[in-house]
Amino acid sequence: MKKLYILILILATSNVFAQNDKTKKADKLFKDLRYVKAAEEYKEIAIEEADAYVYEQLANCYYNLFKTKDAERWYSQTISEGNTKPDVYYKYAQMLKANGKYQQHNDWMAKFAKAKPRDKRAIAFNKNPNYIPQILAKVTKFEVKNSEINTKNSDFGAISTGSTVYFTSTRDGGRKYGWNDQPYLDIYMATYDGDGELSKAVALSKDINTKFHEGTVSFSPDGKTMYFTRENYYDGKFKKSEGGQGTLNLYTATMSGGEWTNVKPVPFNNDEYSVGHPAVSTDGKTLYFASDMPGGIGQSDLYKVAINSDGSFGEPENLGGDINTEGREFFPYISSNNTLYFSSDGHLTIGGLDVFASKVKGDSYGAVRNLGTPLNSNSDDFSFTFNEESKKGFVASNRDGGKGDDDIYEVNLINPICDVDYVIVVTDKETGAALSGANVVLADDKGNSVGSKTTDSEGKVTFKVECDKSSRVEATIQGYVPQQIDVNSGDNPEKVVDIPLAPIEEIIEDVIVLNPIYFDFDKHNIRQDAAFELDKVVNVMTKYPNMVIKVETHTDVRGPASYNQRLSDRRAKSTVQYIISKGIDASRLSSEGKGESSPLVDCKKCTDEEHQQNRRSDFIIVSKD
């Protein structure tokens, strides 16, 4: 993607001023973003004369063209000449990473972090310097397939609306752009053929496509308004910034008679900075975009702006430091479940640009997640769009093995995008010591067991669960009171769950103190929550082999007293039978049904909750020794 203009950012490289007459021509080409020609000029100078400035500029050319091996070579040269700029360290590290040299990447990122410790990229790296193997080891979330629509040129930015797919391409030739000596970009549309392959790509009309760049698109929910990126060209006039640079603007168009017409610029465009990469929320009320406008956090930030009911716009708002970094954030896409997808080279990546996801929560954003391989690669991966209902979408990449410079890949979701690692830590409640060998069971919100594991020497087990799911975690070990807690996973990558277990003695008085053993109305079967509490009785009686227990079971006051007496007898017997089934000798247990004679809550017009409190079992210690 660095080979394309998509978002023209002068900040992507250091400011350039001619160092001497020898570099004057190369500097002018560089300033005009003509990196192919500039690299040729700098290389000629570098052959004749070793110069740290020339080496850096040559490296920057290849960095922007994403020629990673050439960029790595020349950044190494400029550093060997004594260049200690933190940003040179950073770019050198990124090229090493793109070339698969992960340990060297870590070494230079450590130097960058030491030189620029307050940089968000440095902070993120210091927190997790060995993050690359962790990302590579993640559960694969997507299948990817190179699309038939690709050509030998650049193709990217695919988005589906109905049965039509729109995308951006340089396929039709024409005049070339100085950045990479490729043709200018236009917007195309294609449809699926009978075999499910994209075909019949057609360029949009000249109302949309001009002799300048047109880029990625997004649509209103009703499909009648298109938002698209174009260079600063409108009403027959092309404008540059005061510094002579082209910028990107956002435009809208409306569908009329089967054609996109009535092109209009949005009011927050500006000649001095770029605004592009539109993404409309599924309710049509918010437009997300990328910009290098003043006041941002990094080289390119993501913003949002309200779309009012009359089609007007509010004031753009920066998405803030949870999303934006000192690097570059591009290509936002907001899905139907309010997940924000975007590409970034400022968050922790495995290559150049990687695709990330964050759940939108009102005005805040959840944890930013790298979506892992094979969606991401050691190259640039960008312009991700995704249908949450069909679980299909598109991503673009300039990875090895494609048909062209940038290719469109069709993606298919095979595992949940958002997951959380539960780290369960089981300890002794009194001493805080880790309890090795405890059995930990994870159940879903309906009580169905998902899995069980045994704690290690540190008292830990790990489960992977989907984000924003309710779970129940149960921990048991001989000699301790079992504990059961409800947990919501949230969306942070890791959630630590502490379960302190009390020694059995804490629940023994004249009776065994448990959470209430409840029965459903007019039922005597043991409920799942009751079984968990009865296991505590089993643990106590196992630890004290001479203990004798009497089970007294009670009903609520509904129904005839004689019926309630018989019901309580059945409940008492089923309670005893459960304990016996766990290996406790029947001679150590007795039972008595108390009916409605001893209510815990004496009420004439009881609530459902009060009735349930009266349907209970008590465990009386007859003897302990």
- Helix coverage percent of residues? 10-25%
The number of E-state strands comes to 35
Describe the global form.
elongated
Instruction: Summarize the main sheet.
Output: 5 strands, antiparallel
Which whole number gives the mean pLDDT?
87
How far apart are the termini?
A: 78 Å
| Poorly predicted runs | 1-18
Q: How much is the radius of gyration in Å?
A: 33 Å
Beta-strand level of the residues, as a percent range?
25-35%
Give the count of helical stretches: 11
Strand pairing plus helix content: what structural class?
A: alpha+beta
What does this protein look like?
21% of the residues lie in helices and 33% in strands. With 625 residues, the protein is α+β, with helices and mostly antiparallel strands. The strands form 10 sheets. Strands 18, 19, 20, 21 and 22 form a 5-stranded antiparallel beta sheet that branches. Helix 1 (24-31) packs antiparallel against helix 2 and helix 2 runs antiparallel to helix 3 (52-65). The radius of gyration is 33 Å and the shape is elongated. The relative contact order is 0.08.
Give the SSE layout.
Layout: H1 24-31, H2 35-48, H3 52-65, H4 68-80, H5 86-98, H6 102-115, H7 120-127, H8 131-136, E1 142-146, E2 155-161, E3 164-169, E4 176-177, E5 182-183, E6 186-192, E7 198-203, E8 214-219, E9 225-231, E10 233-234, E11 237-238, E12 248-256, E13 259-265, E14 275-280, E15 286-291, E16 301-306, E17 317-318, E18 329-334, E19 339-344, E20 354-361, E21 364-365, E22 369-370, E23 381-387, E24 392-397, E25 407-413, E26 419-428, E27 439-444, E28 449-454, E29 460-466, E30 470-476, E31 483-488, E32 494-501, H9 528-543, E33 548-554, H10 561-581, E34 589-595, H11 608-614, E35 616-623
